[in-house]
Amino acid sequence: MTGKATTQMDLLRTLEPGHCLTSLNLKVATGYDGRRVADAIGKLVSKGLVERKQVGCFQLTKAGHAFLESGEELTSGPNGPLTGQRKPNKRATVRQRAWNVMRMGNVFTVPDLLLAVLTADDGDPTSNLQRYIKALVGAGYVVELPARKRGTSLTSNGFKRYRLIKNTGEIAPSVTSPNNTVSDRNVAGDMSCK
């Protein structure tokens, strides 16, 4: 259901082209709490109506000024027609980045994936990737190769090597924990990992 995007409209009306206001200025001017201001400003920036001039300082874009001049109102809720299809998850999660590397067709190990996809914000996603690969093996997307890659310590058994054999598309399949099922939005249906 679509409604009025009151907070976004109030922020748009508060901002001016060529004049930068901080989040605190916007909070004081509108009376909204900081979280609400941050959420609404993020949506306005993604719509191209507001731009971030510097950290924590925002101003109206030309498109934002034109939108206000048109007298239209922003609405909340779905944008565009309801098709029943989910939009791809475009977040660059660790699993999505790992899937992208797997799709390149090379043999990989968990340490190889970590080296290729890890960012400073990820912390230590080793067990996350191990569970993900195990689920993909169980669902038939990935195969474990018989020979291991040599380990880094003298007493290491080496690292398991894998290869993606079922490349269904650009969206990483997701794993649901309770029933250990892989859902793939690139194709219809779910596959059990048991």
Describe, in short, the structure shown.
By secondary structure, the chain is of the alpha+beta class. It has helices spanning 6-14, 23-30, 34-46, 62-70, 94-102, 110-117, 126-138, and strands spanning 3-4, 21-22, 50-54, 57-60, 75-76, 142-144, 162-164, 174-176, 181-183, 190-192. The strands form four sheets. A three-stranded antiparallel sheet has the order 2-4-3. It has a three-stranded antiparallel sheet with strand order 8-9-10, covered by helices on one side. The protein has a two-stranded antiparallel sheet with strand order 1-5.
Describe this structure in words.
With 194 residues, this protein is an alpha+beta fold. The protein folds into 2 domains: 3-76, Winged helix-like DNA-binding domain superfamily/Winged helix DNA-binding domain (Arc Repressor Mutant, subunit A); 94-192, Arc Repressor Mutant, subunit A. The protein contains 7 helices and 10 strands. The protein has helices at residues 6-14, 23-30, 34-46, 62-70, 94-102, 110-117, 126-138; strands spanning 3-4, 21-22, 50-54, 57-60, 75-76, 142-144, 162-164, 174-176, 181-183, 190-192. The strands form 4 sheets. The chain has a 3-stranded antiparallel β-sheet. It has a 3-stranded antiparallel β-sheet with strand order 8-9-10, with helices on one face. A two-stranded antiparallel ribbon has the order 1-5. The protein is elongated.
